[in-house]
Design brief:
The complex is a heterodimer of chains A (311) and B (293).
Chain A (H helix, E strand, L loop, with lengths): L5 H29 L4 H6 L5 H11 L5 H13 L13 H36 L4 H15 L2 H15 L11 H31 L2 H8 L4 H38 L5 H10 L3 H29 L7
Chain B lengths: L6 E3 L2 E3 L3 H9 L2 H17 L1 H4 L31 H37 L1 H15 L3 H12 L3 H27 L3 H8 L4 H37 L11 H8 L7 H28 L8
Helix pairs in contact in B: 2-4, 2-11, 4-5, 4-7, 4-9, 5-7, 6-7, 7-9, 8-9, 9-10, 9-11, 10-11
The chains are: A mainly alpha (311), B mainly alpha (293).
Chain lengths: 311, 293
Amino acid sequence: MEGFNITTYIIRRILLAIVVIFGVTLLIFLLVHLIPGDPAAQMLGPMATTESVARLRESMGLNDPLPTQYIRFIKKALVGDMGRSFRSNRTVVYEISKRLWPTIQLAITGVGIAFILGITAGIIAAAKKDTWIDSLVMIFAMLGISVPNFVLGMFILLLFSIRLGWLPVMGYGTLRHLIGPAVSLGLLYSAIMARLVRSSMIEVLGMDYIRTARAKGVPNRVVFYKHALKNSLIPVITVAGMYLGVLFGGTVVIESLFSWPGIGRLAIEAIYARDYPLVQGVVLLIATVFVFINLIVDLSYGLLDPRIRYE
Amino acid sequence: MIISINIIENGSLKFVDKRHWNKFKKRKINFVALAIIVLLVIIAIFAPNFSPYEPLAQDYEKILLPPSRSHIFGTDNLGRDIFSRVIYGSRITVQIGLFASILACSLGLIQGLIAGYFGGILDTLIMRFTDILLSIPTILLAIAIIAILGPSVNTLIFAIAIASMSQFTRVVRGTVLYVKEYTFVLASRAIGQGDLNILFKHILPNILGPVIVLATIRVAGAILVGAALSFVGLGAQPPTPEWGALLNEARIYLRTAWWFTLFPGMTLAVTILSINILGDSLRDIFDPKTYYS
């Protein structure tokens, strides 16, 4: 595209993110309306009388046309009102906020493990390309991608919690409780990272400016860590942002396995209880966070690498 | 060159040629992976012939027995033979893997072909829809769909397909954009061939490479998500011997019966591993660049 500039790109990228989030709200709004049966009747349970269901329908605004209902839903969501949980009758925002911190702890630890382990392993594999060390790292990465996180979690429980007694079996509270679920969650992600870093590194190492640097007599180590590493991490960051969804999705399963009181388990509980406002709230939250992270990644990508042409 | 070049022989496009096969042969591990997958499918088809016991047959005198010669994977909390349950479980795993990715692939193909070929407003609409779906993690989107339809194996297949079709849409659209500028496509348009003719005769055969690679990788993904959802109780329901559901039952007996977890878990992991190894090789064979853009 002729005459591109970074400001238009940033504005367009932000607008796109807003469109996507509105789309998500439309999807989760429709979620409740696609469910067979009457949400009001669902809420009141099988004992409710026809009149009380009708009254609730009226007060919930379910008799209004769908577009009106959607606009109301959006207006409320914008001021942080996602309705009330069917189950506890507390606000959805309260229910989620109570469960937010454990998930943040878990996600950050998981991402931390993934980045440290994944980038290190990827660098080592690229440096020792085509040796047994490289093969070993890549075999572990393949295993990491293939073993489902909950299976890994159960194996960790079997070995480290039950057999060896090093880790608590489940629950929440201490740092030791965090290790099992964070490793189960982060290992898959670190395997993805290791593969990305390795291939990106190898690609960059084959470029002309690396050969030039070597020809100039720059020491190998400097070429590797200063010239190559910095540039090869740029594409890694974008793809890492894309794969964060895998990690977020993983919390749903891992939190149930380890009885971790986070929003992933909350989502499962909400579905069992047919607590649709809560399901809506959790899906909207996770999708929004994910869109936001990808937005930041995309924008920083341009800042990190000035050669990028925006379209 | 991004797309693998198809050699025209006897007037028809040839999708796989000898060079592909030679590349495949180079990595011996491919044959191991392929053998495991073929074995899995055979076991799934002939499950009754392979399993020594009935998968649902309970025996209260044989509760939670460790592996032995008569029960090589041990028995579960109801005295059922875990080996037989794992064998029957392969049927559901194969179903989920195959049907979910075929459905996702077909839906993604249709959307991607339309978006890439016709462009304009259709392209914008389809791609924004794709962006929206991709912004929700697969497993969460599948959960939302299951919340509407209620948990069952069929719902699971449908939910996984919807949740993963957008990846196909993206890849197909990207490849179509590229292929439709090929001279032979432009030429067929110039001689007045219809859109449908061009789409199915000229474009489709030339985008199959990346689509098949993605489909292979998605089989592993579908099996993984299917097992994970069954594990949290949103997929196959007990007493169905699905692997994820099996592991869910095993959870309570982690302390007393390691075999209950270990064997189904290993089977699931080895299955996904084999498919991933094949997928990886196929991606290398059909040139990598397009699948991530």
